[in-house]
Structures are given as C-alpha cells and as structure tokens.
Amino acid sequence: MLQEAISYLRGSDDVWKTSIIGGVLLLFGFLLIPLFLAWGYIVEVVDRTARGDDEVPVFEDWGQLTVDGAKAVAIAIVYSFVPAVIGVVLIGSIVLGSGETIGSLGAAGLAFTGLLTVGLLLAAAYAFPAAVAHFAAERRFGASFDVETLRPILWNRTYATRWLLSVGIVLAGSIVTAALNELPMIGLLLGSIVGFYALVAAFYVIGQTWEELHPLPTTERGGELSSDRPAV
C-alpha cells in the first residue's frame, strides 16, 4: 500500500504539471481560494480511488474543485472546532474559578484539561479522513457527519492501520518540506510540491481503504468508470 500510494501520482502523464500546480496552490493557501482548489483535488483523488478508478485526476474543473475544497476545509474546521471550544471553556472555567492564584488542584485540572483537549483533537484528526471520504463519495456536506456510516469504519482495525500509514506519509513529507524550506529562493516552492505530493499519497491510502470497507456503486458510461452520485 505504501509503494502504491507513493507511486500513485507518478502514474499520471501530467505528474510534474499536477505536482507543481498543487505545490503552488498550497504555497499560496493563505489566500484561501488556492487552498480550496488544492483540497478540491484531494477530494477528487479520494472519490476516484474509493471507486476503483485508477486514472489520476488533473486540475481542470476549477469551479467544482473550489466548491469541493471549500467544503472539505469546512469539514476540517467543524471537526476541530468542538474539541477547541471544549478546551477553551474548561480551561477558562478553571482559571476564573481559581482567582488570582492557581493552586495544585487547579494546576492538575489544567493538565487534565490539556490532555483531554489533545485527545479530542486527535480523535477529530482520526475521524476527518473518513469524513472526507464519505463526503467525496456522496458530494453532500452532511455525509461527513453521518455517524451511522462512519462509526463502523472508525472502529475497524484496517482503517486504524491505514490512518497511521497516511499520517506517517504526511509526517515524512513534512520533514522533507522543512528541510527544503531552508534552501534560498526555490526552497519554499519545492517544499510545497513535496507537501502536496505527500498529501495526495496519504489520501490515496484513505480512498483505497474506503473502497475496501465501504464499496461504492459504479456504472460504465461511454467506456469510462463513473458513479451515480448526486451532484450537489
């Protein structure tokens, strides 16, 4: 699976074009629209791999990529928002309840709250790829919060193992990116390209996992693999 994930984007005739475009989009992700486009591409990768389509997508339907990417980013915000709010509320209540000085009990409460918040953020990070996969399959924002569908996936050992693999790919890409960022001028762009490549490989793993654990219906239209999903 690791070898397949790393080789996935290389299987495209437009590997350099796609990687450079994706890297540039991530580099200017702070402008939001480029970030949406990059994540829209990731959504398309997940959708295709989850349906057994080996054709690597290209950057072409920019409008659809922007919409899908914006929804993917919104999903990430929602999943991280709840743990963040819980952490802020609990920490705020402990600090306000302790007055000017925080005793040993208050310090212990802060430590516990910090660990709880980190645990909740990890749980959100664990569920997020599956949420993106379900959204990619259905193209419905609400599908990413469909507990009945997501719960058995999240409790599956295969998903847990593949999630760790995808995290490892992203971390490895981050290490290489950090090293490349030290290079003058071209370093930031090269790092962004590597980061995008790693992100695609990681979500290729998620798409393949979704195909195994939650097979999606496909039909043949004009000799090409496609789906009967609703377009929303």
Strand order of the largest sheet: 1-2
**What is the count of helical runs?**
8
* Strand proportion: under 5%
Average pLDDT works out at 87
Low-confidence stretches: 219-232
The backbone outline, from C-alpha atoms, is: globular
- What gap, in angstroms, lies between the N and C termini? 32 Å
- Helix % is over 70%
What is the total number of structural domains?
Answer: 1
Supply Rg. 20 Å
Derived from helix and strand composition plus strand pairing, the structural class reads mainly alpha
* Largest sheet properties: 2 strands, antiparallel
User: Tally of extended strands?
Assistant: 2
Pfam families: DUF4013 (PF13197)
Keywords: Membrane, Transmembrane, Transmembrane helix
Protein name: DUF4013 domain-containing protein
InterPro entries: DUF4013
Please outline what is shown here:
The protein has 232 residues and is mainly α.
